[in-house]
Amino acid sequence: MRILGIETSCDETAAAIVEDGRRLCAQALASQVEVHARFGGVVPEVASRRHTEVVTRVTEQAMREAGLEWHQLDAIAVTCGPGLLGALLVGVSAAKGYALATGLPLIGVHHIAGHVAAAFIGTDLRPPVLALVVSGGHTEILRVDEQFRFERLGGTKDDAAGEAYDKVARLLGLRYPGGPKVDALAQRGRPDAFAFPRSMLDEDNFDFSFSGLKTAVWHELERCRRSGETVAVEDVCASFQQAVIDVLVEKTARAVAATGLRTVVLAGGVAANQGLRRALAARAEADGFRVQAPPLALCTDNGAMIAAAAYFAWSRGQRADLTLNAHAVLSLEDWQAGRV
Amino acid sequence: MVVLAMDTATEVLAVAVGRGEEPLAGAAVRVPRGHSRLLQPTVLDLLRMCGLNPRDVELVAVGVGPGSYTGVRLAVSTAKAMATALGLPLVPVSTLRAVAGAACPGRPSASVRVLPLLFARRGRAFGALYEVSAAGWVCRIPPRVEAVEAWREHVHAAEGAESGGPLLLVHDFRPQDQGLISGFGEARRMTLAEVAGGIAPALLQVAARGEVAPVVGDAVHDVAPEYTLRAQAEVKWEEKDGMAGDGGRESGGPGGKPGE
Ligand SMILES: [Zn+2]
Questions:
Q1: If I label A230, which of A72, A165, A254, B38 is the partner at 20 to 30 A Cα–Cα?
Q2: Domain coordinates of chain A in residue numbers?
């Protein structure tokens, strides 16, 4: 079964065709990172305008690279939430236009389900799995059952991990998007240089909090500034990153123990973080579970993850019709129940 | 020739299916926040009513605004997807021209000036000035956003120069904002709600008569809404540190990004 997936929930306009949720036929992407860099963050109206300008061209490019005609597809999938409403609406409108023109069935996909599904592409991995989704907008631990249905075990109470990275990057004067730069600088610093807090580790749940960590970094930088010390940027990055990773890895390992699931999918933009990948792999080795992360190109937002998730959703009977709408806020429960 | 027309830039979701400029079926839906949900099902329903399939469509016309930013993107994205998937030409038409056409659907023997004004907040309106006569439509002031005051001046200035005929003002100002659009002289007034059913048929007319040239082939991808207003963030950015030569201003400098 061949599915075209379209993703426009934030600042990437992306499309891809995936076969049976596993085999990537082709993908295309128009990134807006440079467009938003000058604003220091994603500007929703600017993002929506850009999506409208490029969405059909990106889709056609994916189709052409796959060497496919519309009648050789089996369904059209699109991210219907969560995300920036105006941005989501462009993808949903285009996808509905394609479905209307071609008569192909339509599948609305939850963005987080997409991130998790990305880890299945090119593998023989089968659910059930545990998923740690870490991105600019999300930090969640999810249980994924045999039918690719999600149960949220925990998540962040305030900032997403990726958001904390970007905010710390900004405190350090690194240009947006700063998350990957923090990761790179952290590789050269001492992770034990500063004792930043590990929030919520003493709590018996799978929740996170990262806003206190960001504040601690701010206090440290202020202290340096007042005392005239030069800030060892690499050390700040390394210590900050270690604090994030420690909490993510520890809570994930606890979820593995609590659920008995032996495979952890690491997904989302921050899944590309080298430090996190290494630390989780080391813990998996010690505790005897398996970690599966998508290739780097499929960690950030893309169309393939939407097409892959759509395949699993389709397999358990999920369909949308032309009344499909976009939702800035959308829970996995509402999505699975077809309330889109 | 089967023509499909759609517009979502105003509070009216307007769709019509026609043979040439003759409407076969049309819909004007004013369900608040209903456009994104209802556009495509409405298109499909109307085509079916006419005994047609999406594959039977030969030309797509779409209203490209100005109007609601989010709204206009719905029809533009849908129309581009349909046109590119079906290999059809796409006719991008100003929503203001469609609204004007809806207010004055026939061809009057003596010329009439039509001024569509769509509320754009802060005392402004998206507008354009058209003149229609037996000879057809002429655009006197192309679509743009201006203070309502400025629109009044444009109209009066035109009256001084050449008549152009009586003025027909069609607008979507809510009752509490209608004080803003007083003082247009003897103008006959209509509301957008009153002319809602004529918007999509006007698009059919513009497209079928070739008043706007169809966009074909690869260029269909580049059809974009005509917002007439820049995104607020871009305007602010340029005011702050984007524009060279804005000498007298205090510069934000490289660290001048706003806080969280
Ligand atoms: Zn994402």
A1: A165
A2: 2-117+298-336, 128-293
DSSP H helical ranges for A7-148: 33-37, 44-66, 85-102, 111-118
CB contact under 8 A, A46 and B79: no
- The model's pTM is 0.94
Q: Where are the domains of chain B?
A: 2-95+197-222, 105-194
Q: In the prediction, which pLDDT does B242 show?
A: 53
Q: Say which of A45, A53, A101 has its CB closest to residue B54.
A: A101
Residue A337 has pLDDT above 90, yes or no: yes
Q: Give the tens place of pLDDT for each residue, A165-204.
A: 999 999 999 988 888 899 999 999 999 999 999 989 889 9
Give B182-241 as a DSSP string: ---TT-EEEEHHHHGGGHHHHHHHHHHTTSSPPB-GGGGGG-----SS--HHHHHHIIII
What is the distance in angstroms between the Cα of A291 and the nearest Cα belonging to chain B? 35
Q: How confident is the model at residue B259 (pLDDT cuts 50, 70, 90)?
A: very low
* Closest residue in chain B to residue A176, using alpha carbons only: B257
Q: How many CA atoms lie within 13 A of A217 on its CB side?
A: 30
CATH placement of domain B105-194 = 3.30.420.200
Strand ranges across the sheet with A150-155: A150-155, A139-144, A129-134, A263-267, A290-292
CATH number given to A128-293? 3.30.420.40
> What mean pLDDT value characterizes chain A?
96
Q: How far is A225 from chain B (nearest CA, A)?
A: 16
Residue A263 is predicted with a pLDDT of: 98
Nearest to B231 among A45, A98, A173 (CB): A45
Specify whether domain A2-117+298-336 bears CATH 3.90.550.10. no
User: Both ends of chain B: CA-CA distance in Å?
Assistant: 54
User: Is the pLDDT assigned to residue B258 strictly greater than 60?
Assistant: no
pLDDT at A136: 85
Question: How much distance in Å is there from the Cα of A306 to the middle of ligand 1?
Answer: 10
Does A100 sit within 8 Å of B224, measured CB to CB?
no
Q: Is B24 on the interface with A (CB under 8 A)?
A: no
Residue B161 has pLDDT above 90, yes or no: no
- Ligand 1 centroid, distance to A7 Cα (angstroms): 9
